[in-house]
């Protein structure tokens, strides 16, 4: 059988960052050279919005002074801009909405943006973070209420717990490193799924496959891991189905599983694909819808990356038997066989030039840190 490389040139993916944390995450993605996606930022804070690096910007509300940590202000501001939001999102096949929960803008505006996207018939995924513990019980409570609202408005929702970052990075991590790690996790969550569709592949996972998996009801999880070495396939698969930052999920309960295997064209072996799929299928039930793709990425060198998206999980649970938590290198440390990894826990629901929408002046500076009200 001949090999056929398949790409998805007609799939349009838009990524919108809402509030300060969402804007930071989108800036991180945009600065990484991900030119295949369209980036948008939306904020009630005109000053923070002016510091973003996206092609499209939407000021939510007229004051430009932020939401004052009040989700209702964020929601009302976004509601007034529904027409602008619809114009920015139209034409997309998939929209990622990324935000920090617990403040005013991200918590209040993200559900409105999700409603607009779904009214347009767009597959809508939320990628949000919960606050650090030190940000206080009120902020955590607001975040949980916002997540519950957003979960009813999206097809899938990835939740990142910032409070776990200190555990995996170490208590001596600096504040700058912690916030940067939070941005990185949000970014990896988005790009890990988007890559499955957008990167040309030898084995095809098309958009309808992704839609089928992402619209399974219940809980969901997403994980990605990279390894080099002779046993890279087994190790990458094992760590992709573990969750280094959040509580694990029992993969055997999943009703839909999406797997993407990436390696350089010269190193990817058929037996490695078999090893990866055997490891993952051993943790799933016989009735699960399993879709897999294989893509060539010569930038990986001798490494292999395995990405797993599992949906239709009934509830969070312990790790699957035999799976272990992936380790995350401390800042500045040189990782050993693990090059990069990212995993998270997900609840799911039954062009060129600058184009500004009510934007302040441009700036290349960083947006406000996730802890500020821009969320």
TrEMBL record:
GO biological process: cell division
Tubulin/FtsZ 2-layer sandwich domain span: 203-322
Subunit structure comment from the entry: Homodimer. Polymerizes to form a dynamic ring structure in a strictly GTP-dependent manner. Interacts directly with several other division proteins.
PROSITE patterns: FTSZ_2
Residues covered by the Tubulin/FtsZ GTPase domain: 12-201
Protein name in UniProt: Cell division protein FtsZ
Record's subcellular location: Cytoplasm
Region (Disordered) location: 313-375
Source organism superkingdom: Bacteria
